[in-house]
Specification:
Elements (H helix, E strand, L loop, with lengths): L3 H9 L4 E4 L6 E6 L2 E7 L6 E5 L2 H10 L3 E3 L8 E5 L6 H17 L3 H8 L1
Antiparallel strand pairs: 1-2, 2-3, 3-4, 4-6, 5-6
Length: 118
């Protein structure tokens, strides 16, 4: 099962990703450019992460996986909370990280994308 460190390493391996704590000292946010694509509470005993998702895919994921629920404190249409309880494979979680990253990256302004590639 993915640990916080493995999750963090994976996210930071993506081009242009940074981390910060904008809300408090336990909510770690991952951004690409100026927009967040993942966030997690680093002190929870069972890791959970909020990831952006296509609204139609979100519905299917929530139906198919008990450990995927509407995004906690987020827009429930566009964000899911993934609970790392062992019921979802690491590969599936990393796929959802990739999807969240791509959704957010594709929404960046052209100038910001150019700066990240530069």
């Amino acid at each position: 099962m993915l640990s916080l460190e493995n999750f963090k390493t994976y996210c930071l391996s993506k081009k242009g990703v940074t981390t910060y704590f904008p809300f408090d000292d336990e909510t770690l946010v991952f951004k690409v450019g100026s927009k967040m694509f993942a966030l997690t509470n680093i002190n929870k005993p069972i890791m959970e992460v909020n990831l952006k998702c296509d609204p139609y895919m979100s519905q299917d994921l929530r139906r198919d996986f008990d450990a995927i629920i509407p995004g906690y404190h987020m827009n429930k249409k566009h964000w899911n909370t993934i609970i790392f309880d062992g019921s979802i494979s690491d590969d599936k979680i990393l796929f959802l990280v990739d999807l969240s990253f791509e959704l957010v990256y594709s929404g960046l302004k052209k100038s910001e994308k150019e700066q990240l590639q530069g």
